[in-house]
Specification:
By secondary structure, this protein is of the alpha/beta class. 33% of the residues lie in helices and 20% in strands. The chain has helices at residues 18-26, 45-50, 88-99, 124-142, 146-151, and strands at residues 3-8, 34-38, 54-61, 68-72, 105-112. The longest helix has 19 residues, at 124-142.
């Protein structure tokens, strides 16, 4: 099974760099997995999704339970579909509209962050949440089975 791990966010804005930090930590351990780091989700990421069977998007978030949430996504058109930066749901909707096919099973890991100031590194809380997320995602990537990933979800769409 071809797995894509796409971490997005701005490392120059403190905890917003959690998604890229997750990918950068895991990519060397799993060379068979496609690993992508981006500042934001863009329509061009449809091409990355087209080359996988299972995708995990990783981002930072606020007002979520620590250390993270993990959810199975479905396509949903929203206002972001009309801009250069997309929500995860809009990315899947663009995939459907562009490729005229259902997107691969895609999950969103949102890691709890606390500080999003310019020029900051990860906060101590975010670093702890990242460590928990790394353990969680390593288990998923070692067993890339759709039903197992669905069972691991912490919230339902």
């Amino acid at each position: 099974m071809r797995v894509l791990l796409l971490g997005y966010g701005n490392p120059g804005r403190g905890d917003d760099g959690l998604g890229p930090a997750l990918v950068e930590a895991l990519a060397p351990k799993f060379p068979q997995m496609a690993a992508v780091v981006a500042m934001q989700l863009q329509p061009e990421h449809v091409l990355e999704l087209a080359n996988c069977d299972l995708a995990l998007l990783a981002d930072a978030g606020t007002d979520i339970p620590s250390p993270f949430t993990f959810e199975h996504l479905s396509p949903r058109r929203d206002l972001s579909a009309f801009s250069h930066s997309l929500s995860p749901w809009a990315l899947l909707a663009v995939y459907q509209e562009t490729l005229k096919a259902p997107p691969p099973s895609t999950f969103l890991l949102t890691i709890a962050g606390a500080r999003f100031d310019f020029g900051e590194s990860l906060s101590q809380r975010a670093q702890q949440n990242l460590e928990a997320a790394l353990v969680f995602v390593e288990k998923l990537v070692r067993q890339p089975e759709l039903e197992r990933w669905k069972q691991a979800c912490t919230s339902c769409p």
